[in-house]
Design a protein that fits this description.
single chain; 7-stranded mixed beta sheet; 6 helices; elongated
Length: 203
C-alpha cells in the first residue's frame, strides 16, 4: 500500500469572509493570512488586468512570509468594470449611492483576479475570471436603505450576491462564485497547472 502523502497547506491571502466561506463550502480549510497590500497604490491598463495585478500582489506579499512556507497561497481581488472603469470598494456612503444610481438598469463585468503560488516550488499560476452582472432598478429609497446598512462600503462594486443587494441584481452570466469573490472552477484549473488536484485538498 502506497504511503499517505501529507496534505498540502492552503493559505488564503485575503480577509474576505465571503472568499473564505466559498472555499469552506467546497470542502477546503484554508488558513487566512492577510496581505496588507495597499490596493490604491497599484494601477493597470484595464480593469481585468488591475484585478490580476492586485491578486498577484496579495499572493506575493503572503508567499514571501515564513509562516507561508510549503503552502499553496491563493490571492484574489475583484473590481467591477463599468464604462471601462475599474470600481473597487466605494470611498464612502456618498460614493456608494452615486455608484448605485449609475449602475441601476445596466450591466457591468465583475472581474476577479486569481493567483496561486506554490511556496514549496516557487511556481505560480494566475488568471482573471469575468462575469456579466445585470443590475435591477432599485428606487432611490431602496438605494438609500441599502447604503445605510453599511454593506456596500466593504465590497467591490458596492454590491454582493450573498448579501442585502442580491434582490437588486436581476441576473448574471458566468460563475456565481466569481461575483462573490472567488471562482472555484478557475481555482481548480490553476491548481491543476501546478500539479495539484483540488480533491487532494479536501478535508
Amino acid at each position: 500500500m502506497a504511503p499517505m502523502t501529507a496534505q498540502r497547506r492552503l493559505v488564503l491571502a485575503s480577509q474576505s469572509p465571503a472568499r473564505l466561506g466559498l472555499l469552506r463550502q467546497a470542502g477546503l480549510a484554508p488558513e487566512v493570512i492577510v496581505s496588507g497590500v495597499d490596493e490604491d497604490a497599484l494601477t493597470a491598463p484595464s480593469p481585468a488586468e488591475l484585478a490580476l495585478v492586485l491578486a498577484e500582489a496579495k499572493a506575493d506579499a503572503v508567499a514571501g512570509r515564513p509562516e507561508a512556507a510549503d503552502a499553496l497561497v491563493i490571492g484574489c481581488d475583484s473590481v467591477l468594470e463599468l464604462d471601462g472603469q475599474a470600481l473597487g470598494k466605494p470611498a464612502d456612503a456618498e460614493d456608494a449611492t452615486a455608484r448605485w444610481k449609475s449602475m441601476r438598469g445596466r450591466s457591468g463585468v465583475l472581474q476577479t483576479g486569481h493567483c496561486v503560488i506554490d511556496t514549496a516550488t516557487g511556481e505560480r499560476a494566475s488568471a482573471t475570471a469575468s462575469t456579466v452582472v445585470r443590475f435591477g432598478e432599485p428606487t432611490d429609497a431602496e438605494i438609500a436603505a441599502y447604503v445605510a446598512s453599511g454593506e456596500p462600503l466593504y465590497v467591490a462594486g458596492a454590491f454582493t450576491l450573498d448579501g442585502r443587494s442580491a434582490p437588486f441584481v436581476d441576473s448574471i452570466e458566468g460563475d456565481h462564485g466569481n461575483v462573490i469573490g472567488l471562482s472555484l472552477p478557475l481555482l481548480r484549473k490553476l491548481l491543476a497547472e501546478l500539479g495539484v488536484s483540488i480533491t487532494d485538498l479536501w478535508v
